[in-house]
Amino acid sequence: MSFAARHRDDPMPVLPELRSLSTERVNDVAQMSLLQGRGADEIARRFDAGHRAYVALLNDAPAAWGWVATRTASIGELGTTFTLPEGDRYLWNFVTLPSHRGLGVYPRLLQAIVRSESDEAERFWIAYAPENHASGSGITKAGFVALADMSFDRVGRPSLRALQPGGAMLASQVLGLPETTEALTPCWRCVRAGRIGMTCAAETCQCDYQRPQSECAPTSRPEPR
Questions:
Q1: pLDDT at position 190
Q2: Which of 87, 138, 183, 198 is within CB 3.0–4.6 Å of 106 for a Cys-Cys bond?
Q3: Residues 6+ apart with CB under 8 A from 90
Q4: Is 32 helix (H, G, I), strand (E, B) or coil?
Q5: Taking the alpha carbons of 155, 157, 158, 160 in that order, is the dihedral positive or negative?
Q6: Is residue 216 a part of any domain in this protein?
Q7: CB count, 10 Å around CB of 215?
Q8: Strand locations in the chain, DSSP E?
Q9: Cβ(125)–Cβ(89) below 8 Å
Q10: Structural domains counted in the chain
Q11: Where are the alpha helices (DSSP H) in the chain?
Q12: Which residues contact 56 (CB under 8 A, 6 or more apart)?
């Protein structure tokens, strides 16, 4: 997973107009429950915890949606919960309907959220799995810069490795995770499958979030230290 950020004053990349696209902030529990296929109680808890929902509409029909954390946030794969500094936002749980993928809805939704939240917030954070290439591309198009790899080390410990000078330090201040200089597991799909010790040779991981199969071969598991 990469951890990316942008400041509200960073240049906003200009994206070609996508006709009939609009974005709205949604406060309705029933609407978000229906869109996400999750129970109303869970959605209500998100709102109560200060999370905000945004929906992108294409021809007045939902095309994508996502959430903005304003107080605390969790990254389930890491088993970590963190408190956001005042003036920060964490963008999470984005979904683009399969029928609307490849149109550029996602980066435009991210930009709309940044514009909307910039009256209150200065810095925006977002994370994506390393094998989620489509998400990473959309996040970059929206003007975010990947600061650090966020994954597991050889013995399964969640860690941060800088992609930009000082990037891991900035991410660590938000997430509370340790920094490292060693290579991290490049494939979260294998981690979720329970192969914590699995690694891939550099530049050889073939996993793609948009495809169900995993093509990485596990290496020998190191002894715990």
A1: 62
A2: 138
A3: 68, 69, 73, 84, 124, 125, 126
A4: helix
A5: negative
A6: no
A7: 14
A8: 2-7, 21-26, 52-58, 61-69, 72-75, 80-83, 88-96, 123-128, 145-152, 158-162
A9: yes
A10: 1
A11: 29-36, 40-48, 105-117, 133-141, 167-175, 188-192
A12: 21, 22, 23, 62, 63, 64, 65, 105, 108, 109, 112
Residue with the bigger pLDDT between 18 and 192: it is 18
Proportion of the chain above pLDDT 70, given as a percent: 83
Q: 31 lies in a domain?
A: yes
pLDDT for 166-186, tens place per residue? Answer: 999 999 999 999 999 998 877
CATH code for the domain in which residue 83 is found: 3.40.630.30
CA distances from residue 210 to 129, 132, 134, 142, 206 in whole angstroms, order as listed: 11, 7, 8, 20, 12
Q: How far apart are CA 75 and CA 174, in angstroms?
A: 12
Whether 184 maps to a domain, the answer reads no
pTM: 0.86
Rg (CA), the chain: 18
What pLDDT does 224 receive?
37
Alpha-carbon gap, residue 39 to 200, rounded angstroms: 38
In a domain, 193, yes or no: no
Least confident residue range of 98-107, 149-158, 185-194, 195-204:
195-204
More confident residue, 225 or 44: 44
